[in-house]
Amino acid sequence: MDRVRIDKWLWAARFFKTRSLAERTCELGRIESNGVRAKPAREVRIGDLLHIKNDSGDFQVEVLALSEIRGPAAVAQTLYRETEASRELRLKLAEERKAMPHFEASREGKPSKRDRREIGRLRGRV
């Protein structure tokens, strides 16, 4: 096997939970292969440089092996090598997210009596 569809490879390498998600991401233009926007049927070869944008972050990886079969995570990690620049950027962004303050989720429905009093104080009413 010297070529595999990019959507199958992304699914086998566990970047996406389903192959249809990998296909949809390719169609939206969030996957680049060697600097060119990749369609789902584009073939991946060993040595290709992929730029992948998904919910987990942005990855820049080099393809080390090909697979059409989704296996254990340990095997999936042997299919690619993430570049140092990509790894450093993801770790930096993760630290920034941790440092950001977390806000309490807004409540549903009417404000309580206590909330109404606080709103009045904020608006300058006593």
Folded structure, characterized:
- There is one protein chain.
- This protein has a domain at 4-85: Roll (Structural Genomics Hypothetical 15.5 Kd Protein In mrcA-pckA Intergenic Region, Chain A), CATH 3.10.290.
- Strand 5 (49-54) and strand 6 form a beta hairpin.
- 37% of the residues lie in helices and 20% in strands.
- It has helices spanning 6-12, 19-27, 73-76, 84-99, 113-122; strands spanning 4-5, 31-33, 36-37, 43-44, 49-54, 57-63, 80-82.
- The longest helix is centred in the last third of the chain and has 16 residues, at 84-99.
- The protein contains 5 helices and 7 strands; from the N terminus they run E-H-H-E-E-E-E-E-H-E-H-H.
- The protein has 126 residues and is of the alpha+beta class.
- It is elongated.
- Helix 1 (6-12) packs across helix 2 (19-27).
- The strands form 2 sheets. It has a 5-stranded antiparallel beta sheet with strand order 3-2-5-6-7.
Please describe the topology of this protein.
Layout lengths: L3 E2 H7 L6 H9 L3 E3 L2 E2 L5 E2 L4 E6 L2 E7 L9 H4 L3 E3 L1 H16 L13 H10 L4
Antiparallel strand pairs: 1-4, 2-3, 2-5, 5-6, 6-7
Helix pairs in contact: 1-2
Brief descriptors of the model:
126 residues; alpha+beta; Structural Genomics Hypothetical 15.5 Kd Protein In mrcA-pckA Intergenic Region, Chain A; two-stranded antiparallel sheet; 5 helices; elongated
